[in-house]
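Late entry, evening session. Most of the bench is empty. Finally got around to the prediction I had been postponing all week. Sequence below, unchanged from the version circulated by S.P.
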Amino acid sequence: MSVAVIKTDGSKGEAMDLPSALFGQEPNEAVVHSYVVAYLANQRQGTAKTKTRKEVNGGGIKPWRQKGTGRARAGTIRSPLWPGGGTVFGPRPRSYETRLPRKQKRLALLSALSDKARRDRIKLLADLKLPDGKTKNFAALLGRLELADKKVLILDEGQNTDAVRASRNIPGVKVCRARLANVYDILDADTLVITVAGLKDMVEVFG
């Protein structure tokens, strides 16, 4: 599959073939689903916590005597049956970390990239140089690429601090290193924009 390389001024250059090793695989939905579930689980902090009856403050004295009142016996006002009492089987701090085999991670990434290529949701950019780091210039670039008001993931070689700073205030736009691309961000984006240098970097790492 070949895609025309777009220059920063919006003009199209020569077409470039997308490597079939990355963009020509048969998508595996089951593996992609497992990756997304594990990714979202790993984002959880796991700090939710409720207090048990021994952790709730107060309740040291017996509310009333055991017999003779006509009411049910009670030993503490911090019983789970009482308002303000402890919680039974509530959430406790825990780790939600889920690990996937390295081969499954790679297969999920290739599946996501191949799915984007099949649906013509990939654009190749000659370069991404924004020396001034201006949001206005970055938004103009998205307009020339016909990607305004869309979710866009831009993959470039190395840490492009100028592009990251320029895109920070544009909703739905994310710039990251090509070799650090993850399946969730690829699936979440409407269009995947890859620079020529970023594509070479991906071939070197994942190809």
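Two things to note before I forget:
Helices lie at 20-23, 29-42, 102-118, 135-144, 161-167, 183-188, 196-206.
The chain has two domains: 2-45+99-206, 50-90.
Will write this up properly tomorrow.
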